[in-house]
Design goal:
The structure holds 2 protein chains of 2 kinds.
Chain A: E1 11-23, E2 26-37, E3 41-45, H1 52-59, E4 67-72, E5 75-76, H2 82-88, E6 90-93, H3 105-112, H4 118-131, H5 133-137, H6 148-160, E7 166-170, H7 178-193, E8 197-201, H8 205-211, E9 214-219, E10 222-228, H9 229-233, H10 238-243
Helix pairs in contact in A: 3-6
Chain B: H1 2-32, H2 39-55, H3 60-88, H4 92-113, E1 129-132, E2 135-138, H5 139-161, H6 163-173, H7 175-180, H8 185-211, H9 218-232, H10 237-257, H11 266-277
Antiparallel strand pairs in B: 1-2
Helix pairs in contact in B: 1-5, 1-6, 1-8, 1-9, 1-10, 2-3, 2-4, 2-8, 2-9, 3-4, 3-8, 5-6, 6-8, 9-10, 9-11
The chains are: A alpha/beta, B mainly alpha.
Chain lengths: 252, 291
């Protein structure tokens, strides 16, 4: 089951000719242009080094674009810090382990809401725990004692504390069993259906395409293809697109 | 038996002072990747600032509080802004060299700019001893232990029971993840430098009555703090405490039962044994870098 492209959805995030990288001699994004629409899951795919994770880091203010423009709801957000972007309603779940292992689950959640007013925090934590019953059961355990799946749930839950309007998520399926991957994807789908804009990088392309609205294929830091996820899922050349190589023009 | 008890108590008191300096060492490393080889001079400078305040008529407690504020500025904010911030992006080695240079610079500045003499320093605790199980325990040792314990427990409570303390731990464990959550990483790192400065002032208050205030007093406490941090485990604050106390007690025991001539070598030998047998330190964890 693939998700049909939502018609008429408004662009929440716009990348326009963005050039960015990790140093002046290491440019990853070479004039990247795309948009991510409200209430959709936009999937970024492409071979290693194509710039997928760099897009998320640049959008979230971890890297500064050297040229081009990034817009959120039509406002330019090029020079904003992660803290400012969180306040704007953009949250990021990076790749890998991002918990503070020696702190309890509760304290990890509490730090996820460090930018919120103290009075709102307890209610927000309860809201997140209602969504993740397994995390609620382990609320006083050290985060390092959680299983891989529980840790990923906690990371996503921590990002949801801020009720983000845009959720950036990098490789959520890494280290998870197929069942847990499905659970995470179902959760992201539910978030998108509730109006959250999800921009996801995922290597587990076939599974992710089933839940996404659109797929953007990046090659060498440029957008090579922008197609509805359902169409791409049926593309016989999907493996080649994912692993790299020249991208054919989309069928009319 | 009484002798041994006496050696253990006074060794633990001396070790508690090393532990305070070692704790600062460990916190700086965990939060910001800074290795500060001027830590001994960070104890020497406050000793002279306290002396200066007392010579201006301030009582010891007021001199201590004023020095905490001055040290936070000089050894906390200025050290971070002038030495650490410009160099840290180039890696650990330039910072190690800079802190070694700072150590020599501060020492020579004090010698040439003020005095090469040793100055007596008043003890914050009453003089005298009391007897327990045949051992003569000094009030100064008990006072030192209690004061150091209060500071360490207070610091632990701050780190574990306040949101700011936990945010500091978060920065130390995973700086990138902390930044993504909106934690003010620069501020948390600055707090660590301020805490290190206060720990250095406390160490100065406790150690100087015995060492006397002298430009080279950091030559002994600086390396011992470093060894204590490594022995206990550079990525564990509790390790710094254990390392400091171990050094203090063993120094006393070796100095009494073997020869006082070997006392100063104890920390180095213990350090060598630990890095050969258990490089991550007694309480350290191989996979973690920080608090």
């Amino acid at each position: 089951m693939a998700i049909d492209e939502a018609r008429g959805a408004q662009p929440m995030i716009v990348f326009e000719n963005v050039v960015a990288g990790y140093s002046p001699s290491l440019t990853i994004l070479n004039g990247t242009t795309f948009d991510a629409r409200a209430g959709e899951i936009t999937l970024l795919i492409g071979p290693n080094g194509a710039g997928k994770s760099t897009v998320l880091k640049t959008l979230f203010g971890i890297l500064t674009p050297r040229s081009g423009e990034i817009r959120f709801e039509s406002r330019r957000i090029n020079a904003r810090t992660p803290r400012e972007l969180l306040a704007d309603g953009i949250a990021f779940v990076p790749q890998g382990r991002n918990l503070f292992g020696s702190l309890s689950v509760r304290h990890n959640l509490e730090l996820g809401g460090i930018t919120l007013p103290r009075a709102d925090l307890a209610a927000r934590i309860d809201e997140v725990l209602a969504r993740f019953p397994r995390i609620r059961e382990r609320i006083d355990n050290q985060a390092s004692t959680l299983s891989g799946g529980e840790q990923k749930q906690l990371e996503i839950g921590r990002a949801l504390l801020l009720r983000p309007r845009v959720l950036l998520i990098d490789e959520p399926s890494i280290g998870l069993s197929p069942k847990l991957v499905q659970d995470v994807m179902t959760l992201l789908r539910a978030l998108a259906d509730a109006g959250t804009t999800v921009l996801m990088v995922e290597q587990n392309v076939r599974t992710a395409l089933k839940y996404a609205n659109r797929a953007l294929v990046l090659e060498m830091g440029r957008l090579a293809l922008d197609r509805p996820a359902a169409e791409l899922l049926d593309d016989a050349d999907l493996n080649r697109l994912f692993l790299g190589g020249h991208v054919k023009a989309p069928a009319a | 038996m009484g002798e041994l008890l006496q050696l253990i108590v006074s060794g633990t008191a001396a070790g508690a002072i090393y532990a305070l300096a070692a704790l600062g060492f460990t916190l700086l490393w965990q939060a910001s990747g800074t290795i500060n080889f001027a830590q001994g001079e960070f104890v020497m400078v406050p000793a002279f600032i306290m002396l200066f305040c007392m010579s201006a008529g301030a009582p010891l407690w007021l001199a201590f509080l004023a020095t905490c504020v001055i040290a936070m500025l000089l050894l906390g904010v200025l050290f971070k802004r002038i030495v650490v911030d410009p160099l840290i992006r180039h890696g650990v080695i330039p910072l190690v060299i800079a802190s070694l240079g700072l150590s020599i610079g501060l020492k020579q500045l004090m010698r040439a700019g003020y005095s090469a003499q040793a100055f007596p320093f008043p003890s914050p605790f009453p003089s005298g001893h009391f007897a327990i199980a045949g051992a003569a325990i000094s009030y100064a040792d008990v006072g030192t232990l209690l004061f150091a314990a209060i500071i360490v427990l207070g610091l632990q409570a701050f780190l574990e029971r306040t949101v700011t303390g936990r945010a500091m731990q978060a920065v130390a464990q995973n700086t990138d993840a902390a930044r993504v959550l909106g934690i003010d990483v620069r501020r948390m790192v600055l707090y660590t430098f301020l805490i290190n400065a206060v720990l250095a002032v406390v160490a100065a208050l406790l150690v100087t009555p015995a060492y006397l205030a002298k430009f080279d007093m950091g030559d002994s406490i600086g390396p011992k703090a470093f060894f204590a941090a490594i022995i206990g485990g550079f990525n564990q604050t509790r390790g710094a405490l254990l390392g400091g106390v171990l050094i203090g007690v063993l120094e006393n025991v070796v100095g009494f039962y073997v020869s006082p001539a070997y006392k100063e070598g104890v920390a180095l030998i213990l350090f060598l044994v630990v890095i050969l047998v258990r490089p991550e330190g007694l309480l350290g964890k191989a996979e973690e870098r920080k608090v």
